[in-house]
């Protein structure tokens, strides 16, 4: 997959393209990406996306915290068979472009999009005034086709990033997983720890979360790549001062993968187990961690008995 940071220096010729933030790359987004691949045929299926959510520029105080980092979105596009991604910096200059000018100068003249695929609720251009109806008229004039993908429904409601963000904030992971079509994934950069987990008998891989939106602090059954694990997300109130930064601490239930300090990896959160809490010392904490590990093994199907979900 080729990634262009900004408009490429030379004009491209895109067989089919779609455009949007695609935060979460959920089931509805997957349908759009699939339609883009189908339209591209043997040509290049492309995504035009942005380095940030538009509201982070237009209205920072009400901008949503995104489910995915840009790096996670790019990897998701790759997994969906996208060959080309153009990442546009969403700055005031881009936000001020009228919809018709954006379609004419960027979609038609710079990228030579032969066919555009958008979601049913897509809006673009200054003030969000551009929509599918305008694109249909502009496509006829500028020479590109248009496919509008209907919403993916779940319980008769459209699957949306807004809906999934709410579920993640509430820690309702099974519902979020159903709408995403995969587990909730957190990206984290490995940092050096104090080896307290090792002293307690439960060594951890310590990650600094990079996602804007995090689920509630607590214990989760998880997977680090293919490795089953217990994940702790929180600020370690038993051993750290109040106000310490939140970390994602991973205790692997099988051989831990080698992850160098500074490397960013993804952790899949499978199921929430309990909220974070402060213990009266490290020994009660150690006993609770042992219970957390035993439960996670059951949840992940690593021990006999009824699987908890």
Class of secondary structure makeup: alpha/beta
The number of domains is 2
CATH fold category name of the largest domain = Rossmann fold
CATH superfamily of the largest domain: HUPs
What fraction of residues sit in β-strands? 25-35%
Shape: elongated
Question: Looking across the biggest beta sheet, what order are the strands in?
Answer: 1-4-3-2-5-6
* Radius of gyration, whole Å: 22 Å
- Biggest pleated sheet: 6 strands, parallel
Number of strands: 14
Tell me about this structure:
This protein has helices spanning 27-40, 54-58, 70-79, 92-95, 99-110, 132-142, 161-170, 173-180, 196-199, 282-299, and strands at 2-5, 16-19, 45-50, 84-88, 115-119, 145-149, 153-154, 157-158, 184-190, 205-209, 218-224, 227-234, 247-252, 264-275. It is of the alpha/beta class and 309 residues long. It folds into two domains: 2-157, 3-Layer(aba) Sandwich (Rossmann fold), CATH 3.40.50; 184-299, Elongation Factor Tu (Ef-tu), domain 3 (Beta Barrel). The protein has a six-stranded parallel sheet, with helices on both faces. Helix 5 packs across helix 6 (132-142) and helix 7 (161-170) packs antiparallel against helix 8. 31% of the residues lie in helices and 25% in strands. It is built from ten helices and 14 strands. Residues 305-309 have low confidence and may be disordered.
